[in-house]
Specification:
about 260 residues, alpha/beta, 8 strands, about 45% helix, globular, binds 3-methyl-2-oxobutanoic acid, binds sodium ion, pantothenate biosynthesis, magnesium, cytoplasm, EC 2.1.2.11
Amino acid sequence: MSITARQLIQWKQQGRKIVALTAWDYITGRLLDAAGVDLILVGDTLAIALGYETTLPVTLEEMIHHAKAVRRGVKRALIVLDLPFLSYQESVQQAMHSAGRALKEAGAQAVKIEGGHPATVETVARLVQAGIPVMGHIGLTPQSIHQLGLKQQGKTPTDEQKLMDEAIALEKAGAFSIVLEHIPSDLAARITQELTIPTIGIGAGSECDGQVLVTSDLLGLSERQPPFAKVYVNLSEAIAQAVQDYAAEVREHKFP
Ligand code: KIV
Ligand code: NA
């Protein structure tokens, strides 16, 4: 049985932490699911796997292609598809069409959209009315890199209030969860207390209801990772070593 968006809200009430990671392919989806990850985000950080500098170039076609692969590997975790830049901002109709494809074609169980602007909140409400579970994402929103950069958000009293208001508005619109990215821990803690729906933090301290990391950061596969990421294993080194060992054995007539 797959985990549902509703279940995650219950887990918050029970004080059970939510473990989330990103996946962009079948192998990763299968491994994360087997290791007991609760929520798998097919993030538009897919940009990293595709060699893009930012998340902006990622298309809905690319997201769906990769989400389908993840879908084939996952049995238990809730799969959330990250709607990429300009696949939902144009109109509610565009968002509905994109989210519909995420569920109908890719087999995702929910979508995530960035921002807490009133227009975004309206989009969330309309998607939820159509039966599509939506995850919000506020704080540092990488699709707005040309406006915000990649720096921490919510540092002035005005910004703190803005983020609190956005979180409340997204909850009211029916979002089942909200990603809080790169904001001060105490602000994340206050938002977490204020909301009934779970907050999933990334660079937002330990008081969130769950945590998410980009899997390539956790595994030491990214060329660079944000300051708040933790590298649990350096697979870049392990891969380089394995490939060098193989190359040496082939060249020295030792393998096969
Ligand atoms: O695209 C992504 O991987 C994300 C997470 C970092 C939350 O949005
Ligand atoms: Na993203």
